[in-house]
Write a structure and sequence with these properties.
The chain has helices at residues 3-13, 86-98, 115-132, 149-158, 171-177, 183-206, 231-245, 273-288, 293-296, 310-317, 331-334, 342-351, 359-364, 369-372, 392-397, 400-409, 435-441, and strands spanning 55-59, 104-108, 138-142, 161-163, 218-224, 249-254, 324-325, 376-377. The protein is an alpha/beta fold and 445 residues long. It folds into two domains: 3-261, Alpha-Beta Barrel (TIM Barrel); 310-441, no CATH class. Strands 1-2-3-4-5-6 form a six-stranded parallel beta sheet. The termini are far apart.
């Protein structure tokens, strides 16, 4: 099998791994070296969800000793197999770079023979790139659960970012679908990497030019929809990973059925893309907006509202928190208003030191009044340029696509049957100063 046939098989096998982002690290290329990495990304080309698309995303091999039921590369699956030698993959990467096809490498692998042997092959590939070709571009490497810590350490000194896929949210799910894996085998190297990163940051105070261990941090990925785990379980785990292991990102991958198995969704099941999208929105709220997982979901509501995003859903659950005056509300409270983001909240705090803000000035500061106007006041007054009409709030909080789906779903309801958020398992607490908003939510669509 020639190298390009291997490339076709192993790039296709890598497409299910979504834990792939911009670099998050600034590096200067030493004299005589090639390649570079900037914190804002590998290059200026990004996909719609923010992922950099200028990486060679490939597996070292799709030969795997494990038999994870959800994985297309599992040991028992009948699929074409291939494996690069370290020299083949390094040569391929550098030739693609020289032709300006790529700016960096994303390297993962099946478990060939055992975790240690696989990790050694990946290390040799990166060693050739770094030491022989003097390539200093961005490299993201997947650590192999179960590999010796010394090998993980060596891999981390050659890569810019590392990740260990936790894959499934619970030990029960792992026992059912990935019996060769355990949370311990995944979390142990994750803890080791986190400790080494922390040590690295402390050493740099004394030794500024010392080699850095995984300077762009670590990430992980979870598969969504392959198991009965709820959004609440997934979000709680995500929050715990951020707090305990200081991860840069937790990625979510909607499960795409590719294998018939009694423990998995049927082959004709559609990937839960909206669920994945809601989890990414909630992840953003955890990282940048000061929300906690137990604020967004609880035991009574363990799934996200499919019609409005998590922030809007939280606002509808906590109407007693609003309306707030944007000229007085603290920054942390402004972040909880739908339509006000991190940048616009900062601009509000800065601008109101010099003037009293109006609704018109809020629009100039980047506030999305279409959403925010229901939850804020200026100088103690509501926005006089609009009137709350039937369905206005709910429909304004939805995207155009979900609004059409929502209307179609309930278009056949009888005229006497009133539609509101109370028809869904997401109760709205009606103790709100602006009672007309609650009434609006209860009107028929």
């Amino acid at each position: 099998m020639d190298v390009f046939e291997k490339l076709k098989i192993l790039t296709d096998a890598a497409k299910y791994d979504v834990a792939c982002t911009s670099s998050g690290v600034n590096k200067k290329t030493p004299k005589g070296g090639i390649g570079s990495a900037a914190a804002c990304g590998i290059c200026h080309s990004f996909s719609a969800d923010g992922r950099c698309i200028s990486l060679l995303k490939v597996l070292m091999t799709n030969v795997c000793a494990y038999d994870c039921k959800y994985c297309v590369n599992r040991h028992s699956n009948d699929t074409p197999r291939a494996a690069f030698t370290p020299r083949e993959l390094a040569d391929l990467t550098i030739n693609f770079y020289r032709r300006n096809y790529i700016e960096g490498l994303f390297l993962s692998s099946g478990v060939l023979k055992n975790p240690d042997y696989t990790c050694e092959q990946m290390i040799e590939t990166l060693r050739i790139l770094r030491e022989e070709y003097r390539f200093f571009g961005y490299i993201h490497a997947k650590a192999i659960p179960g590999a010796d810590s010394a090998l993980v350490s060596r891999l981390g000194m050659l890569a810019d970012r590392m990740s260990i896929n936790i894959e499934l949210p619970s030990q029960d799910s792992l026992n059912l679908l990935a019996p060769d894996k355990s949370k311990h085998s995944i979390l142990t190297p994750m803890r080791y990497i986190q400790n080494r990163i922390q040590e690295n940051s402390m050493d740099l105070v004394k030794y500024k030019h010392a080699p850095k261990f995984v300077p762009a941090g670590q990430s992980t990925q979870m598969i969504i929809g392959a198991t009965p785990d709820t959004d609440l379980q997934i979000l709680n785990l995500t929050e715990g990973l951020y707090k305990k292991y200081k991860l840069k990102r937790v990625f979510f991958s909607a499960y795409m059925p590719v294998i018939e198995n009694s423990f998995l969704p049927t082959i004709d099941t559609e990937p839960p893309l909206w669920r994945e999208h809601r989890l990414y929105q909630a992840d953003w709220l955890l990282r940048f907006y000061g929300f906690a997982a137990n604020e967004l979901l609880d035991e009574q509501n363990q799934s996200f509202n499919p019609y409005v995003d998590p922030k809007c859903n939280w606002a509808l659950h906590h109407l007693d928190f609003f309306p707030m005056d944007v000229n007085r509300a603290p920054y942390s409270d402004l972040l909880r208003v739908p339509g006000i983001g991190v940048n616009s909240a900062k601009r509000i705090v800065t601008a109101r030191r010099m003037t009293t803000l109006s609704f018109e000035s809020l629009k100039k500061l980047g506030v999305v009044l279409k959403r925010a106007q229901y939850f804020i006041t200026c100088k103690g007054k509501k926005n006089e340029s609009f009137k709350i009409t039937e369905n206005a709030i709910l429909q304004s909080l939805m995207s155009e696509k979900t609004r059409k789906e929502y209307q179609m779903k309930f278009s056949q309801r009888e005229a006497i049957d009133q539609l509101s958020l109370f028809d869904m398992p997401f109760k709205v607490q009606p103790n709100f100063l602006q009672e007309d908003i609650v009434k609006c939510l209860q009107q028929q669509m």
